[in-house]
UFSP1/2/DUB catalytic domain-containing protein
Amino acid sequence: MESSVCPFCHLSVPSSELQWHANSHFEDEDKEANGMELGNQIQIASSSGFTDVFCISSLIGLQTRSNFYHVKDGLISLLRNCLELEARHSSSVTILSGYVDHFQSLPSVDVGWGCGWRNIQMLSSHLLAHRKEARKVLFGESGFVPDIAFLQRWLEIAWESGFDPPGAQHFNCKIYGTNHRIGTTECASLFRSFGLRARVVDFGPKESELLYLSVPGSTLGQPVKQRNAVRVSGPMDKYVHRQQGLNKGRHFCHSLHNGKSDYSKGKSEGPQVLIDWVWNYFSDKGLTISGSSQVVVSDRAPLYFQHDGHSRTIIGIQVKHQKNGTNQFNLLILDPSDGTVALERSLKTNVGWQKLIKRGVHTLKKPQYQLCYIDPGIASREELNELKTINSIFFEL
């Protein structure tokens, strides 16, 4: 599908939708406002104890576009070129998500705590570029990715609307203007509040299963039983709150995927379980590993990738077929800690990009990981109510 760059926000969109996208920038000419006015609106909404239509409308009108370094040719396009060149000298298959902007953490702005918000921005840039239904609901149809302050307010609105009550309780429903770290549950809550089907997946050791959101071993079509568990919530769930000794509730579900998909295939040990899940996610059962060298762009959205202390965005996966008959997998990631200019330079020169983007199985040394992914479509009213409870599916590493 041919794409074109919007002359106003520099976002790459399908050419057939460029006119619609460009016109959306003129629907409200008063969207630019200063931070002081936003702060006043936040105080009004907070003191009232609830969020009404007027407050949301004000937020839509006030929100500003996040500043980021725009890569003219697009990072995914540059990465694909490098992978295709690499594939000439090795037998490999690579699956990439579509267009993604890289949002890096900035000194004096969010270094040390903002990675979660930056990953949300990366996912948002993809959704706005590739999913028309998402553009119609995300951020009041603004058509752009808001800065962190406005994402924080949107998360507060999600909490005020009843999404993830335990997480909201942990933060006392207030996160705007703070440097609190967030994780997959906050990512899922924010996107779910717009009707998007954000899902959470846990990976970890069997002995830690009680710290997870889900029932271990639950798979598509298999009813699961509720069980007593250590109650956790908030940013990075068990990573942070286990140490803090918090006691907050979570609930369980019968099936994460609602009959639409199943990524439980694969019986490998350790981190390979996570690798297999990511491969199955991006290939969606529609691509088989073969001996031919190729780079494929999937319609799957990137993955929010969380581990203890940091989070990144998975934009694809590569498998190389070794001469001894084994397969070597590499996750392809964008890290908010990396500089966008350095990423662009390494990809344009085809020098050093592997160290920045590739992560093999041997690098997955953390005992626990979480992923957040977004299924296509918009939830119905009934489903939206169910999405207010954050749950996950568990895989043993």
Summary: Residues 149 and 176 are 6 Å apart (CA to CA). Residues 25-35, 41-51, 214-268 have pLDDT under 50 and may be disordered.
